[in-house]
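A quick aside before the break. I want you to see a complete sequence-to-structure record at least once, exactly as it would be stored in a machine-readable document. Don't worry about memorizing anything.
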Amino acid sequence: MPLEKTPIQGYCAPGYEPVRETFAQLFATAGEQGAAVAVFKRGELLLNLWGGTRDKAQTQPWEAQTQVNGFSANKAMAAICALQLVESGALNLEQKVAHYWPAFAAAGKGDIRVRDILCHRSGVSAFHEPVPDAAIYDWDAITARIEAEKPWWTPGSEQGYSPIIYGWVVGELVRRVSGAATFNDYFQAQVARPLGLDDYHFGVPTELQPQLAAVGPLKQLQAGAGDLGRMMKADPGGLVNKAFTNPMSLMLGINSPPWRSAQIPAANGHASARALATIYGALAAGGTMQDTQLLGPTTLPLCWQEQSRSAQDRVLGVPLRFSLGFMLTGEREDCRFGRGARGFGHPGAGGCLGFADPDHGIGFGYVTNRLGQSLLIDERARALVDTLYRVETE
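That is the input. The structure line, written in tokens, reads:
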């Protein structure tokens, strides 16, 4: 889409025009169709920009509150909910998951701790047996399958990213411990509504679904494209393949009403860029935003304190560090969450990104409906982050 046909709308604080220019260039040179970026610094809004279109026909404009499927960027929201319950004393990191969810103990999972789930050391990273496509849309059906699932390795002994199951396990813990009817009920009551956010949902109400952005593939090849695909092809019946394609609805159902209506905490939260940035902005500014405390001073450091690291994650095949539910800045250029040593966040497949940089007070959110091929942080988001920090240091 030519630059002159893609007006950029929204707010840009004085001095941050280079970030706006970089955002505009993504539409001109990087294949962007519809996207938004927002940034808070120490609780103050620096940027809230959007542009392009949100539908496949490219006729409906992207708007300030347009929500898009953020894929794994949503794992951080599940982590925040769990950490709130840790802070209240309702959830214990050292306690076994089965203490709260007795049926989870089946098939060798009895010793898995809450901590193991949150830092991807549980061994429960994929389903061994084929899962029907529709099962992911039924909370009770999918949690029953998780109860019967066995770990891929001795729990706690190795690190292996859990692309999808992670969210249901954390979500079920949140539901059981808090007494909320659903994971989204808890998220809305304790995270979204207190921050004044009506543009972040797990299970989007039917009446709002026509306003969502439809996602599709980015038509430009990116650096690192195909890394995950090569790992999957190398072992068609193995862990990596099953983690992402069992069932296939995890890859093919993402614009459908069943997907949008379901609660899949690791993968199908729909959010605007400002919603993502608001939440991370609170975490970057001491845990509080708009007089709402998401996490207190004793719990907040758990977001950036390393709990696990691996030179080669069992699922993603690259060096990764995790805190409790968040990726941490690593050695790769596509795994840098800001420029501070305590940076933490989570990318989503295709490009969406949220992170907090407490050392600089930065909360960042970027969403897009054109799905790139980067394994971790998309090069479009990296361009925005690079420009932001260049402005910060000038």
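Two observations worth writing down. The chain has 13 helices and 16 strands. The chain has a mean pLDDT of 95. We'll return to this after the break.
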